[in-house]
Amino acid sequence: MTFILSKILLFLIMPLVWVIVLLVFAVLSKNKINRKRCLISGIIILLLFSNGFLSGKIYNAYEARYPSPKKYDIGILLGGFSGVNERNSQIAFGFTNDRLLQTIALYKKGVINKILITGGSANLIDKEIKEADLVKDYLKVIGIPDSAVIIENQSRNTLENAKFSKQIINQLDPNAKILVITSAWHVPRARINFKKYFKKDIEYYPTNHIGKVKYDLSDFIVPSAEALNNWNILFKEWVGLLVDSFRN
Predict the structure, then answer these.
(1) Which DSSP symbol is given to 211?
(2) In the structure, what pLDDT confidence band is assigned to residue 86 with cuts at 50, 70 and 90?
(3) What's the pLDDT at 123?
């Protein structure tokens, strides 16, 4: 039930949903003053949350930095970057697939010795297809040996990523040096959950940063649908961070 309620909450906190609700009230309201207030409020919220510079600077302050170079026994790759292409039943990648690409690069460079893929199904209906299984098959296709890949395919969220990964690592090597690989804006939330189970400081490798290094004029003045969506991602992380903080 908590899992379903969290999905509903994530929908309700989307800025675009707020804008739509306000515009609907503006159309339906019979009071001219309320109609005007709803219309203006909707436009202001839309312009505010579609500003690329504003969302980018918030991400710049929130996203994690790279760790100091060193070697690790296991790189834990957090799922949430892929699914199934229903046209050919093969793996399909989402916008966070940089998690996987950077993990492959870290393995090829010898920074991590093994890859632990953690990710089950976050689908409310179809729970049969496990992300970790799909990713393992893909890694085999591109030449990464099975001996270098460990899978954890039961977790549905970051807390379970940490819990089930720790169980596996305890069986393999409790003293293994760990690097968690995930999106730069997801690191703060991952850190809270992994600290609960690993009971020690481990390091994190940030991927697919959203905040830019440099901004141009269009980021200041041109409304951006991408910026609007970036706020959805950030609100989701903040809600998850708040829930995980109380839960931990």
Answers:
(1) S
(2) confident
(3) 55
SS3 91: strand
What region does 179 belong to: left with phi over 0, alpha with psi -120 to 50, or beta? beta
CB 133 within 8 Å of CB 77: no
- Is-contact 204 187, C-beta < 8 A? yes
pLDDT of 124: 43
220-230 burial, b if ≥16 CB within 10 A, otherwise e? eeeebeebbbb
Q: How many CB atoms lie within 10 A of CB 84?
A: 15
165: nearest Cα among 117, 200, 114, 235? 117
Looking from the CA of 103 toward its CB, the CA atoms found within 13 Å total 30
For residue 234, count other CB atoms closer than 10 A to its CB. 16
Tokens describing residue 130: 């496990």
pTM: 0.87
**What amino acid occupies position 24?**
V
All domains in the chain, ordered by first residue: 72-207 (3.40.50.620)
Beta bridge partner(s), residue 91: 84
Rg of the chain, C-alpha, whole Å: 20
**CA 122 – CA 131 distance, rounded (Å):** 9
Which residues pair with residue 150 across a beta bridge?
A: 116
> Are 163 and 155 contacting, i.e. CB atoms less than 8 angstroms apart?
yes
